[in-house]
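Schema walk-through. Below, the input block comes first and the output block second. Nothing else is stored per chain. Lengths vary across the set, and this one has 74 residues.
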Amino acid sequence: MEKIYLETTAVFGRNGGLMPISFIWEDQTVQVKVLSVMTLASTKEGGAGYRYSCRAQSKQFFLFFDGERWYIES
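--- output ---
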């Protein structure tokens, strides 16, 4: 799998959790609805981060945050 890094806008909630609200895809801003969040250790490339189950434009997908950058997998 290849990581596709995205320019992402996220906010911190009152509980301190980080939530993505939108990202840029093909020069367009895509609004994101987060369905669930899971702490995740990467078994393929090492490290840890968060996996966000999201919905945008009628599609469901995973958005990852590795502590520095946001990405999806292709």
